[in-house]
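Suppose you are handed a protein chain with no further information: no name, no annotation, nothing but its sequence. What can you learn? This example shows the usual starting point.
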Amino acid sequence: MSEGYTVDTGAVRGVVSKFDDPADRLEDVGKALEAALESAGECWGDDEAGKAFANDYLPCVPDTTKFFAELAKGIRSLKKSVETAMDDYDKHEVKTLKSMPGTELT
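A reasonable first move is to predict its three-dimensional structure. Written in structure tokens, the prediction is:
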């Protein structure tokens, strides 16, 4: 029979509390990229090569700049999910321990 397992929910919470910084930095990078692209304007020229470049480049810009915000959102969602999982684990752990005769909560 298995001896079970334990989770150091405090340690897990400590790790996921650090997720905000990379999410913030990703948003900042996305905003900086968008601002740089806007300030550069259509710098590729109006000749045949410039038009070919624009044809391939312009459709990708919105998805590229949106990617950073979406990735930051995903990191924050992951953080919230892990925090919720740790809250649930703690609740169930307390409930289980309370139901076991002779077990003291610490």
